[in-house]
Amino acid sequence: MKKIFSIIAIGIAIGVFLSTVIEANEIRINKKHQMGTVINLAGKQRMLTQKMSKEALLIAKNINTEKNKKSLKETIALFDKTLIGLRDGDQSLNLPKTEEKEIIRQIDKVSKLWRSFKSHIEKIAMGQIEKATLEAIDKENLPLLKNMNIVVGMYEESAGAEIDPQMAQTINLAGRQRMLTQKMTKELLLIANSLKSSANEESLKSTGELFKDTLTDLMTNNKEAMQDPNISKRLVTVQNLWTEYQNVIANTDLSEAGQKASKVKQDIISQKMTEELLQIANLVDTKTYTKNLQKTGNLFEETLKALIEGDADLGLLGTKDKNILDQLTEVQNLWSEYRQIIANADVSESGLKKAIEINMPLLHSMNKVVKMYEESLR
Question: How far is Cα 255 from Cα 270, in angstroms, rounded to an integer?
């Protein structure tokens, strides 16, 4: 009888032990998947910074205005909800509360940048389209993106205890591809909107000395663009006008009539210089935006290839899962249509139309890839 009780007791003990092991394993798997979700959604925030900027520029360009206003409001709300969820937790998003103080500090930094950016982006969503607002969006979207990217990197690093580091890196970089789809279209639209071409118009008109400052700034900070023959030719014209402007001032007759005549000449030369400098600024900005656009396109292509084939420099082993490979092939097919628009910075009506048609399917296809990597952690 005692032997029977002993066997029963041993059986119960083994059952409890196995139950505990299974439960512990389930907790570990849930934590693993939850960490994958955190990296995925933090990475998605990067994409949303560029999607909002893109939607604002589409509205400014009067392309599908009402549809893009609605989409922009939804994007704002999603960024807001996810940012709060990353810090404080959100059950509906499967986000745990962040406990690491360094990550919390970085999220708070993003929140501060977001408050400023949100104030501008909401104006566009409400139909208040002003050049100054668009310029603020152009100026602030990249700091917001870069600081959000730091958050993703910190989550990736902290995931080491739960997820294989290479899988964490894969989810991160696959997620970054989503952001690049939006960043490319945003950069196309920055070219199409000629956004900065009149940024200094008022200040250029105020004093002759500011012409000198603007000219010096253009020549010092945009040396590569200055090699363009068209820009160089315009610069010579501005320099000649600047010399003429100085001579008028130096030779002004101090009588009332002389000063009036001098003022008329100064205004004529000033207007000509303003027009030339704004043309130069527009050309320089277009070159800068084009260079950024092509750099973004190259990064997308390089990472897409690395996700498929592997790349030691990016810390990617390549993908063996057939279903994920099939989905990556779908992304490749869409990218092959989009690539030429990016490479040529095609902002013609047909180029923009095609870019807008492909942009969201490319994003959705890339998002499926990220989700598949995330689901593979289960």
Answer: 22
